[in-house]
Amino acid sequence: MGLLTGKTALITGASAGIGLATAEVFAREGARLILTARRLERLDKLSQMLRNDHNAEILNLRLDVKNKKGVESAIDSLPAEWQNIDILVNNAGLGLGLDHIKDGSPDDWDDMIDTNVKGLLYVTRAVLKLMTPKQNGHIVNLGSIAGIEVYPGGNVYCATKFAVNAITKALRAELLDKNIRVTTIDPGMVETEFSIVRFKGDEQRAKNVYTGIDALTGTDIAETILFCVSRPAHVNINQVVIMPSQQASTAYVHRKQK
């Protein structure tokens, strides 16, 4: 038996990066998976692989977390056999650009706030309607070192991750008597599609972010999430700050010379 056998987990943003890696690790450990993303074709491909490799039970949902009514409808209309959600991983999120505020794009600001903050709230609220009556569950929010320390050009992205940190702490206090655990994972540099999205498809610029760094991988973060959600019921890991060995903060990074 795996560490999560008999558990049902909902993962947002599961089509790539940390979300995809978490789906893989959770499937390996026996979880039933509700996978959500905007790109359903990617979910279908991932799900087929996980069924083949781990005989996983999976329900795919096309979901844009920014769409409040869409989130409510998707969660409210889950088949009865999928409503007993034990773990929610709020992974969907993005950063856009590195402009200083005076040069920033308000459209990019809206996208980050709507996804990273409001989307997380919409999904959490909808899932809590299912978790709270059964007095059991675990919510894991993907934050960032950018939610602890700021950096030039990070401005609005940092603000959204500071918000995730605050929301997580508030949830932890609000759910103390509901037997629902709450954790935030705050990674440093993780090499996924994050920078490609941030730089709007500029793959070379995205690659340069990690030059000379043995960056964290999506699997590193997924294994950390697994550790948190598989602790005994009386143990809550409130926060994990995890960084590559070559990173001390947003400002201090040691790059190996070629």
Name the helix and strand elements from N-terminus to C-terminus, one letter apiece.
EHEHEHEHEHEHHHE
- Counting structural domains, the number is 1
Roughly what percent helix?
40-55%
Instruction: Characterize the main sheet.
Output: 7 strands, parallel
* CATH architecture heading: 3-Layer(aba) Sandwich
**Which sequence of strands runs across the widest sheet?**
3-2-1-4-5-6-7
Number of strands: 7
Mean pLDDT: 95
Top-tier CATH class: Alpha Beta
Q: Give the N-terminus to C-terminus distance in angstroms.
A: 45 Å
Determine the structural class based on helices, strands and strand pairing: alpha/beta
What fraction of the residues are assigned to beta strands by DSSP?
Answer: 5-15%
What name does the CATH topology carry?
Rossmann fold
**Stretches where pLDDT falls below 50 for ≥5 residues?**
none
Alpha carbon gyration radius: 18 Å
For CATH, the homologous superfamily is named as NAD(P)-binding Rossmann-like Domain
Count, helices: 8
Shape: globular
